[in-house]
Amino acid sequence: MKNNIDYKKYIFSFVITAIIFATAIYLSNYFSQKKLDEIRNIQDKISIDILSSETQFSLLEQSSCKDIGSGSLSNELGNLEAKLSYTENQRGTEDSEVQTLKQYYSLLEIKDYLLMNKISEKCNKTPLSIIYFYSNSDKCEDCEKEGFVLTKLRETYPDLRVYSFDYNIDVSAVKTLISINKVENKLPAIIIKDKIFYGFQSIEDLEKAMPELQKMKSQKSSTTKPVL
149 vs 83, which has greater pLDDT? Predict the structure, then answer.
């Protein structure tokens, strides 16, 4: 009788263990699939935006400059960058899916940059943009701090385009951009109107390097009515 009871205990323990094990596998697979779906959604969104940027330029070529505003260009870069940063923080910078997303996003940025320059040339306007090179390595102590500065600057000046590139990313177009502008591996590095600034740059430093921003700031201040 005792052996029979022990046998039932073993069976019960085995069933409970199997259920726990199966549940753990199911939850692990569920959350892994959910993360993959999120990444694929971001990747699909970037792919659509790359195609959209090409289509936009074809449309804008037929438009007059008075019809072209800052909203004519892709306005999804900031949102996509935030999603990409979140995914990068969750999965790590060395994750293969994250690397693929960064490659897609880098191409989208270059597409948008070229589009903006062509539109600016057509309309005889000065491109209002910053190209920023960074590194995720521990050697670049100021890169993260510079990223916060550029995010704040972009929030302050919505018309400003900020293009951020991982200096070490394996994308031939980014390597060509580095080569054309002769950017050295002294990061962070910022390009403003073909001039390269190495090391940390504060908001004040960047505003000084771009008089257009100071002008926008003055116009914004002059149009702000005092509260009585």
Answer: 149
